[in-house]
Amino acid sequence: xxxxxxxxRRLTRADEKASPYAYISPFFILFGVVGLFPLGYxxxxxxxxxxxIGGQGAFVGLKNxxxxxxxxxxxxxxxxxxxxxxxxxxxxxxxxxxxxxxLDSNLRARTFWRxxxxxxxxxxxxxxxxxxxxxxxxxxxxxxxxxxxVGIDPVQWHKEVLPSHVAIATMVNFRWIGYNALIxxxxxxxxxxxxxEAALIDGAGRVRTFISITIPQLRATIIFVIVTSTIGGxxxxxxxxxxxxxxxxxxxxxxxxxxxxLYQLGWTQKNFGRAAAVAWMLFLIIVIFAIINFLLxxxxxxxxxx
Amino acid sequence: xxxxxxxxxxxxxxxxARSVALATIAVGALALTACSSxxxxxxxxxxxxxxxxxxxxxxxxxTFNQFGYEDLIPAFEKAHPNIKVTHKKAATSNEARDNFFTxxxxxSGMADVEAxxxxxxxxxxxxxxxxxxxxxxxxxxxxxxxxxxxxxxANGALIGYGTDxxxxxxxxxxxxxxxxxxxxxxxxxxxLFGNTWDSYFAAGKQFSAKxxxxxxxxxxxxxxxxxxxxxxxxxNPKDDSITATENPDVKKVYDAVIKAGITDGLxxxxxxxxDDWTASFQKDGxxxxxxxxxxxxxIEGNAxxxxxxDVANTFPGGGGNWGGSYLxxxxxxAHPKEAQELAAxxxxxxxxxxxxxxxxxxxxxxxxxxxxxLLSFKVxxxxxxxxxxxxxxxxxxxxxSPYKGTHYFAINxxxxxxxxxxxxxxxxxxxxxxxVNDVKALG
Lengths: 306, 443
Prior knowledge:
The complex is a heterodimer. Chain A is built from 13 helices and two strands; from the N terminus they run H-E-E-H-H-H-H-H-H-H-H-H-H-H-H. By secondary structure, chain B is α+β, with helices and mostly antiparallel strands. Chain B is globular and about 70 Å long. Chain B starts with a helix and ends with a helix. Chain B: This is Cellobiose-binding protein.
């Protein structure tokens, strides 16, 4: 009897220990196939001369990387990517927080407003980009027309660097603010109401409660949103690609982002080796940015909560 | 408070693991798309032997935009009871190009008959060994010489059967010409434009002295018309080496178009197909443009309600062609014989004239150019211009099939950007230098 009971006990213990891993394994198997393998394969491609059609060529070591790093367009694309990322992510998160706070208060027809902020997210990014690039036309665009009404000279949206970044960031913000606001709203509703009541009794105003209670309580969510928008922001593609009819990021590469540059290398120049090298560098850049952002926000927010 | 903080920490750690996972997935997805188009080089030729006379054969035909084949396919099926045709249509030529090259590199998935646009024909000619040679006594001499020559590879294999073409004339606004006190009927305007670029630009100066409207739409588009008249603009036809930056003719064209468009102020500084360009048709944006046959339809669409467009039967510097397509039969096809039959039938003059009447795709077949059906064709919204006759004349004026090699697409793209930079205020020399660097980076 005794050994059998021991066997059963061991089985139970093994079940407890191993089963959770078995349950989550489908994700990791799938991830291995569609995530990890391509990642490794891209690294392999990046070490070779490799043409879109012709396929694998000679092994060249890190030459693709040094080639790309030696191209001014790579650095230009990196600069543009960071600039568009900052112009989109920073206002996006701040505005989303404010909208969430507004939606969290007592509103009439609450569901209507909440659905309303999500609407832009439902639209296809390409459709948004088509409409916005029409609005931001240099000569006959609506935005310049409106600026003209208040006496401002037309802005060269497709010619100058910063205006083009602002226009593209506007599309990104239009699409993502509502989505992020809803995530913030969900987190805000989980904040225990006692805190607010206590603060009210202590005589704190609206702004004070927002800064001292809401924001610290939302820390985890804010970190999540910042990290995901970092990843999305650094990979921005649809909007700059659709911003003019050529899709290469402007005649002087004013708004060519890293993904556009990658696309141009891979599909216009058919140089897969270099494109794969850019893909890997983009990956590393995103990881670095995500870690920096994560550490920064954790720092700032935990200071606030203590 | 301490409990919440701890749980916050836990979430924070999870978020960090997640961030890395998400980043990995995201880049992985990017890498995946990068790889899906490069896997291997095997062709689907293993099935090629499966063709047999017995049993019905199903062919797929892949086209884009408007080829005008909808009514023709049932007729073909009727004449060939053994063959069924499935027609797949992509919305744009770019979409078709992406599909085409992705499936070509994947080694499977191509249609039995694939339509190819002349813009990416040079790219696909590099891989001409992946396509069937369609030379056959039945079709010898069917097309205008330059049309067939462009689809013939270095070994003399005919890779594609020509469908339509884009012989160029000049479209102009007769009302704006009249307002400027210039002749406005199409014969006199053709004389005014003359048949050299100098005379065309001189007419522009005459026009702009009396009108505030810019003379032509874009230096990029005008450059394209000029550079297409160079026999080998960017690459050496013998070994495909890049000669673009040292070719004095390219520099000459570059300087000439900038002098006319920027220094003399003839250009509206628009980029073709851009939103501003499209909108400018409604706002008297410019008075003339280089105009292949199919552009008439584009202008009609963009300039709805604007009266005064007309076509002058001339083109500076000889003839010019912009656009047009071919039908090819990839070696991936399991039924190359039947596929070739379909391609030959569709590109016969009778069928191509039917397509022209339906969607305006101008035929590239010699016999079609003399057909009374074609020659009597007129466009009401263009002041009843006899476009059939005009573009048939223009097609016969094309003599040259410019050499376009491996890097043509990328070099020409960079050149278009260089010209756009000049229109946006860069100095011509600075922009040229940048172009030279771009071309060097291709190697």
